[in-house]
Amino acid sequence: MQLSSSSTPAAFNIKPNIDFLIDEPVLVAVGEPLFDITNEKEDVNNMAFRLSCQSTAMLNKITELVKDTGLSFDNKFCLELRPASFYNKDIENQLWELRMNVDPVTWFDLQWRQCGDNEEFQRKCVAKAGSYIKKYRSFVVHQMPSISLHEPITAPPYCERQLTCTYRRYYDSSHPKHTDIICKVKTNWQRDDDDHECGQYLMDEYIVMEWSVAPIMQLLKDQTYNSLQLQAGENFYTDQSRFIFTANKEIIRDLVILPMPPWHLSNRQMIQLPLFWATAIISSKMLHREIKQKLLSEQQMWPVEAIAINFGQWEAAGSYDKRHIDTHAHAHLLLTLSFMNACDNTFFRALKGRVMHPPDYLRQNTQSLQFERLKNHDFDSKQMLELSIRLTNVENDIQGMKNDIQDIKTGMLELKEWLINLDFHVFTSPTPTSLPI
Question: Which of 26, 55, 132, 148 could join 21 via S-S bond, C-beta 3.0 to 4.6 A?
Fold first, then answer.
């Protein structure tokens, strides 16, 4: 994606209307302008504040859905900022769109419930889900594994019990490594058993860069700055707190952004902060400038494919502790293959060689919907169709038998009438006279 040339700040609604896209398990801000994040002249403060407002409204919508329907919409969902043209190939501009992707199985359950006992509505519901599966099953073109130009850095084993481990380096050099960057904030929402220290740690080998929040705070307007002080989580200090960027533990094209311990946030808190969105946008612009300088090309394409934040089970899927409910906040900058191929020992060294494509969550979602819900409905539909055909044939046979019986009854009545007439004729006829001898 190339840079946009538009520079007109977009107006926005502090409380945008959030609703589902037609026939898809996706929440969007209805009627709101999109985001021109690739434009160097665009007002970052404006975009960051709009993104935080839309994120807050989407979280509120999730809470509302859970309350109104009793369904677990908060069990797993994902916030995603990416080019609108990714989903609609007819879009030619370079604007980005914020979407909240919800669990398609839960979405289907809501659609099915709204059908009641109406079989026609149920058939349409199954057809709608089938269309979603057909559209997104192969939406992301399958790519062969990329051949890395460089050997990726791999970290040694790290101790998974660093908060409670009594290891001392000079006692046992063979013990898994400990890190100096670990979150020890006590949280009461992270695990489903009791209050515990967070435990999020950073592997030294994968750290890409650190960004102080102070310069970015200076870019934000006073109203944003003041409200931030009340929402920035545990251990936040304007002159000390930082965002830290690391490579993913898997060798995929992913740059992970986290509030650097001891600063602690949950994902729900982070996406409501203009500070986070400003950091994500400015860091994307920085990566673009760096790759242009590296390759000496003014036309170098935008290096970030999407910014994604997972929640619930989708968030905990990559956690070192599967009991986590809300982990230490982290967002994913999904990078292009061309950018990752440029990474080497002198250019974002921690990212070199990490060229594998990130998981295709769209395909995974369609598979979940297919096997957890539609497989049974498809089977039932086929069975019902066969049964309907058989019943129709039986009804036709019965109707034919009824027609035959009616014909027999009609024939019997006609025969009876003929016999009655015959008897009457015989009874009333004069006795024939004897012929003379």
Answer: 26
Phi/psi of residue 429, nearest 5 degrees: -75, 140
Question: How far apart, in whole angstroms, are the C-alpha atoms of residue 305 and residue 315?
Answer: 19
Tokens encoding 329: 């906040």
pLDDT at site 2? 41
Dihedral sign, CA of 84, 22, 280, 354?
A: negative
Taking 50 as the pLDDT cut, the residues of the chain under it are 1-6, 170, 225, 319-324, 379, 383-384, 387, 433-437
Give 4-15 pLDDT, tens digit per residue.
444 566 667 789
Cβ-proximal residues to 367 (8 Å cutoff; 6+ apart), any chain: 137
The DSSP result for 376-416, as a single string, is: HHHHHHHHHHHHHHHHHHHHHHHHHHHHHHHHHHHHHHHHH
d(CA 255, CA 280): 11
Q: What's residue 246's pLDDT?
A: 98
Q: Can you spell out the DSSP letters for 307-336? A: EEEEEEHHHHTT-SSTTBSS-S--EEEEEP
Q: According to the model, what pLDDT value does residue 89 have?
A: 84
Q: What letter does residue 371 receive in the DSSP assignment?
A: I
Give per-residue pLDDT as tens, 304-328.
999 999 998 876 655 444 444 568 9
Residue 377: predicted pLDDT? 64
Per-residue model confidence (pLDDT) at position 230: 52
Count helices and strands in the chain by DSSP H and E runs = 11, 11
Query: Which of 104, 15, 87 is closest to 56 using CA atoms?
Result: 15
Q: Measured between alpha carbons, how far is 289 from 278 in angstroms, rounded to an integer?
A: 17
Please tell me the predicted confidence (pLDDT) of residue 386.
56
Q: Is 69 helix (H, G, I), strand (E, B) or coil?
A: helix
Alpha carbons 256 and 309: distance in angstroms, whole number: 10
Q: Model pTM?
A: 0.81
- Burial-class residue 55 by CB neighbours within 10 Å (0-12, 13-18, 19+): buried
How would you class 174 by CB atoms within 10 Å of its CB: exposed for 0-12, middle for 13-18, buried for 19 or more?
A: exposed
- Residue 48: name the closest of 275, 303, 348, 249 by CA: 275
CA dihedral 80, 83, 86, 90 (to 10 degrees): 140
